[in-house]
Design brief:
Elements lengths: L17 E5 L4 H12 L3 E6 L9 E5 L5 H15 L4 E4 L16 H11 L1 H17 L2 E6 L13 H21 L4 E8 L5 H14 L3 H11 L11 H12 L10 E4 L8
Parallel strand pairs: 1-2, 1-4, 2-3, 4-5, 5-6, 6-7
Length: 266
């Protein structure tokens, strides 16, 4: 039995809720969108590329790394859905080359901020006023354990941008929690998405080894995972669903790490 089959996500706790998941067409974002959909929510996902399957999910195609893209999403949500109840800021990533600080140009630094920080800042600015007017809402920022454990060789700017996102999330919670809006951060470690699986297989092919050996090599590169395996997308989605639900009604201004024990300190 794998990790995902042990989960029991088919509840109805999100009926009547409007949920936005950015970067919701692939990987952990796709798992989050499906989890909220199974919970009865009206789910809106946004990404640059269309999803492979759209059953029961509303898709808004947009590039959130630019102001025009976030403005498009805000406009469509307010016009069509009259706002949202839950926002999951999942979009992010890094395309910087390896080689350490010297390879990270001004353009790459700006790209890291454009992809990992500004989409959340802009969407919150556009969607929070209607939440505050209602006196309720949930915002979750998906950060990364790299904000604590940066990998300087290839993701220096990404790690810094995620650190900025986590800090922003805490400050935002202090401002809007008294107005009925809960704000939290989820910081995953290594997630075994389809993209990660393909990367591991490429490593195996290059090393002339098998998938298991390449997977272990990657975990060792991260400093080891005491649990012995990466997260599944569904496990991350389940944590997100819990924090977005009324079961977590007293939790705000917090960061939840899901990394199988990768971070070696408290």
């Amino acid at each position: 039995m794998n990790a995902s089959t042990r989960l029991t996500p088919d509840t109805h706790e999100f009926i009547g809720k409007r949920v936005l998941v950015t970067g919701g067409t692939k990987g952990a974002g796709k798992a989050m969108a499906k989890r909220f959909n199974r919970g009865g929510a009206t789910v809106i996902v946004t990404a640059r590329s269309a999803p492979d399957e759209e059953a029961g999910i509303h898709f808004v195609q947009a590039d959130l790394s630019i102001a025009e893209g976030t403005a498009k999403v805000i406009r469509e949500i307010l016009d069509r859905f009259k706002g949202v109840d839950i926002v999951i800021h999942n979009i992010g990533g890094s395309s910087a080359p390896s080689g350490g600080f010297i390879t990270v140009t001004d353009e790459l630094w700006q790209q890291a901020m454009n992809e990992n920080l500004f989409p959340a800042v802009r969407l919150d600015r556009g969607l929070l006023p209607s939440m505050i007017e209602r006196g309720s809402g949930v915002i979750l920022h998906i950060s990364s354990i790299q904000r604590t454990l940066p990998l300087y060789d290839s993701t220096l700017a990404y790690a810094a941008a995620k650190a900025a996102l986590t800090n922003y999330s805490k400050a935002l919670s202090n401002e809007v929690s008294p107005k009925g809006i809960r704000v939290n951060t989820v910081s995953p470690g290594f997630i075994e998405t389809d993209a990660a699986t393909r990367m591991i297989q490429r490593m195996a092919d290059k090393d002339k080894s098998d998938y298991g050996a390449a997977r272990q090599k990657l975990m060792d590169m991260l400093g080891g995972i005491p649990l012995g395996r990466p997260n599944s997308p569904e496990e991350v989605a389940e944590l997100v669903a819990f924090l977005a639900s009324d079961r977590a009604s007293a939790i705000t201004g917090s960061e939840y790490v899901i990394d199988g024990g990768t971070i070696p300190t408290i």
